[in-house]
Task: structure prediction
Amino acid sequence: MVLKVISADSILFQGEADSVELPGTEGAFTVLKNHASLISTLVAGKIVYTQSGNKKDISIDGGVVDVDSNVVSVCVF
Result:
C-alpha cells in the first residue's frame, strides 16, 4: 500500500509500506493492505511504518488520516 504523510510545509514521506501504526484519538490502530476505508483524527505520538521488515517512525503533534483503496493519506500538524 502507499503511505503519504504531509504537513502544511512539505511531504514528510511518500512511498510503499507493509503496515502503518497510527496514534488515533480513540487509541492506536494499525492499517494493513486491503484495510476497510476510514477517516480518523490523530493525537500527538508517532506514525510507525514498516518497509520490507524495517520499522521507521515519524513524530507528529496530531492530524487526520484517510484510508481508501490501499492509500493511507495522513495530514499532520
